[in-house]
Specification:
The complex is a heterodimer of chains A (about 290) and B (about 400).
Chain A (H helix, E strand, L loop, with lengths): L1 H31 L6 H19 L3 H24 L7 H23 L15 E3 L2 E3 L1 H23 L1 H11 L1 H6 L4 H27 L7 H13 L4 H21 L4 H16 L14
Antiparallel strand pairs in A: 1-2
Helix pairs in contact in A: 1-5, 1-8, 1-9, 1-10, 2-3, 2-4, 2-8, 2-9, 3-8, 5-6, 5-8, 6-8, 9-10, 9-11, 10-11
Chain B lengths: L1 H19 L7 E8 L6 H20 L7 E8 L4 H13 L5 E5 L2 H13 L4 E3 L5 H4 L6 E4 L3 H16 L5 E7 L2 H17 L2 E8 L7 H10 L3 E4 L4 H12 L5 E4 L6 H7 L7 E4 L6 H13 L2 H5 L3 H19 L6 H10 L20 E2 L3 E7 L4 E9 L2
Parallel strand pairs in B: 1-2, 1-3, 4-5, 5-11, 6-7, 6-8, 8-9, 9-10
Antiparallel strand pairs in B: 10-12, 12-13
Helix pairs in contact in B: 2-11, 2-13, 3-4, 6-7, 9-10, 13-14
The chains are: A mainly alpha (about 290), B alpha/beta (about 400).
């Protein structure tokens, strides 16, 4: 029983990381129709920014988050302005390819600036093991789960009740109609990149605090992709749920079946789910009228 | 007239002879180095290049090799085999190197092998001493280093003989690739020879960060001796999970964990893990080397000295010895001949003496065992170099 609980608990931890990264994917896709293949690199870049801020300012966790997130949002805005805005009006495929190029640039940039050596990065979080019942956790693991819950709540409130959130949904539903009623689509696109970078910062900071800071963190972007597909490409909250589901399934399959099942279990689930719901668990059914 | 013609012919023949062995002039010898200077594994290549720089500095300060200075030309391959091939092509065709010391990883040296054999290029492989490098034996390729199998067996033997309880339970976690298979071969040998219980073997894909399920399996199986086949952050994350699960383990690790920066990643977990290596990590030889390094390397480079620095230093010093034995008439054929005959070349205690006078042209297979002190963040030697 303890073994099962341990697998589920640690699966939720890795799932929370997947979920946060997946939310960043979904947010940009929902607002712009673009799959941002540089999302993993954005997570890595913001993690390194947090690392530098932590070393320079010697901040504890909460102040570090409060400083890192706005800076990361500004980075997201700059990336959107420099790499994506000039592509506005181009075919979606061309913009997606631009994000692939951006990913490669960011990977190289990070190694040039911070080097290739991995680092310990506690992000101001204690490393004393905490017991919840019989299950041990590092505090950073609990922070990761809590961060996912808070970000999901904040995004739900933002998309449902704020003016910009409603405008974002309007752009996602029908970009032309949104423009006709006076929504600045380019501003919404920029906002999506900013929010996505802000979420990436939280994900990157906590991922590095749990699993070291190294220039291969970008790979988590690809590993989180099944969560977005499962939750629904255009469902920000669904992506978070998808992350948790994938995290738990990966751990259970590794724990009980082993032999590399962790790597393929998530994809098996995706194939099964997509056979039944091609738009994901929480995605919108795409109706095309002809 | 006849005499002049003969003289011209002799000069032409002599020029042709030099042209057959590029990279050697009256004043210098060009040595190539293909290495990982960019990408996530760049610190391996950078550590290696420091050793090359120190060796070249020391040799040149002592007058070079029979009056010729060593010039090292490094090309980056980013750890990508296709780029290794391109890099060596450039070194051969543009820079006209005489011999090769840095050869990057296993797949990389294998990618370069057709060029090495085609050009009869004297090559010492010190970074990736895998069996595939010396099987089959290529006449111009000399391999320095032990196998992962021996390195893990040596550590597990030390643990079995000195540290583990009689009822110890052994477990292995290793990468799902050729490197992981070598690690498991050492584990298998140890388990079979010691007659111990080994109920759990876990494989993982390269690049895995989260080992929670894998270590839960280890905890479930009651593992007390762990063969940790993770590298860099992976190895540290494995030990971090073990600590969270309050596992009382003795851990054997990959020699890359002997790099100070890599060992520091594992330090917070608090385990005094072991490492088996074919070069010395601590001791008088290393202290002496660091004094030498001060003459030829910057403070920043000295701080980045790692086991890869020692292997490249040994590689270039060995190559230099073979070239020295050739005298003034330095050719690739002579260098290869002298390397083949090399016996008990002293590396100043940085490794067991180098001898390539064996059918595999393989040396440095003796392994020393070291233990990391997680509190002090230092290594100590547990067992001297020994053939396992």
């Amino acid at each position: 029983m303890d073994f099962l609980l341990l697998l589920i608990a640690t699966g939720l931890v890795s799932g929370a990381a997947y979920g946060l990264i997946a939310m960043g994917f979904a947010l940009i896709y929902k607002s712009t129709g673009v799959v941002n293949f540089a999302q993993g690199e954005l997570v890595m870049l913001t993690a390194y920014i947090a690392f530098s801020l932590s070393n320079t300012l010697h901040l504890s966790f909460l102040p570090l988050v409060l400083v890192t997130v706005p800076i990361s949002m500004a980075v997201g805005l700059v990336l959107e302005r420099v790499f994506i805005r000039p592509m506005l009006g181009e075919p979606i495929f061309a913009i997606v390819m631009a994000t692939v190029g951006l990913a490669v640039i960011l990977r190289g940039f990070i190694i040039i600036v911070w080097g290739s050596q991995p680092f310990n990065f506690d992000a101001g979080i204690s490393s004393t093991v905490v017991m919840i019942g019989t299950i041990p956790f590092y505090p950073a693991q609990l922070y990761l789960i809590a961060a996912l819950a808070l970000v999901v709540l904040a995004m739900w409130l933002f998309l449902r009740f704020s003016r910009y959130g409603i405008a974002m949904r309007a752009v996602a539903a029908n970009e032309t109609a949104a423009m006709l009623v006076g929504v600045s689509v380019s501003r919404i696109h920029a906002l999506a990149w900013m929010l996505s970078a802000g979420i990436a910062a939280i994900a990157g900071l906590l991922f590095a605090a749990n699993f070291k800071l190294a220039p291969d963190i970008w790979f988590q972007g690809l590993r989180s992709f099944p969560a977005v597909i499962l939750g629904g490409m255009d469902s920000v909250v669904g992506a978070a749920a998808g992350g948790l589901i994938i995290g738990v399934i990966e751990n259970l399959s590794q724990g009980y079946v082993g032999e590399g099942m962790r790597e393929i279990a998530g994809f098996i689930v995706i194939i099964l789910v997509l056979m039944v719901r091609p738009f994901g668990l929480y995605g919108s059914r795409d109706i095309e009228r002809v | 007239m006849k005499k002049t013609t003969l003289t011209c012919a002799a000069l032409l023949l002599s020029a042709t002879a030099y042209a057959a062995d590029p990279g050697v002039s009256d004043t210098e010898i060009k040595i190539g180095d293909v290495n990982i200077m960019t990408g996530p594994a760049a610190f391996v290549g950078k550590g290696f290049s420091i050793g090359t720089k120190i060796a070249a500095g020391e040799i040149n300060a002592a007058g070079g090799i029979n009056g010729r200075k060593i010039v090292v030309i490094t090309e980056d391959d980013g750890y990508v085999p296709a780029r290794s091939f391109q890099a060596l092509t450039k070194l051969l065709e543009v820079d006209k190197i005489f011999a090769l010391n840095g050869t990057s990883g296993t797949a990389n040296v294998l990618a370069m092998m057709p060029l090495i054999t085609e050009n009869n290029l004297p090559t010492i492989v010190t970074q990736a001493p895998a069996a595939l490098v010396y099987t089959p034996v290529r006449p111009s390729v000399f391999t320095f280093g032990a196998s992962y199998e021996d390195a893990f067996y040596a550590q597990l033997k030390y643990i079995h003989d000195n540290l583990a309880a009689k009822d110890a339970v052994y477990g292995i976690i290793r990468q799902d690739d050729d490197f992981g298979k070598e690690v498991e071969a050492g584990f298998d040998r140890a388990v079979k020879e010691f007659g111990v219980t080994a109920p759990v073997r876990v494989r993982f894909k390269k690049g895995t960060n989260n080992f929670s399920a894998e270590m839960a399996q280890m905890k479930q199986a009651g593992v007390t001796v762990l063969a940790n086949g993770g590298i860099f952050a992976g190895a540290a994350n494995i030990l971090s999970e073990a600590r969270k699960l309050d596992m009382n383990i003795q851990s054997a690790g990959v020699w890359s964990e002997g790099i100070p920066a890599s060992a520091a990643l594992s330090a917070p977990a608090g385990y005094n893990f072991l490492v088996g290596d074919y070069v010395s990590l601590v001791g008088p030889a290393n202290d002496k080397f660091k004094l030498l390094a001060k003459k030829y390397a910057s403070d920043e480079e000295i701080a980045a000295i790692s086991r890869y620095t020692y292997v490249s230093y040994i590689g270039l010093k060995t190559m230099a010895e073979a070239m020295r034995l050739c005298g003034k008439d330095l050719t690739r054929a002579c260098t290869i001949e002298k390397l083949k005959g090399l016996k008990n070349f002293d590396t100043g205690g940085l490794s067991a003496p180098v001898s390539f006078d064996n059918p595999k042209q393989l040396s440095g297979t003796s392994v020393g065992v070291y233990q990391y002190d997680a509190k002090e963040r230092t290594f100590k030697a547990l067992a001297d170099f020994k053939q396992y």
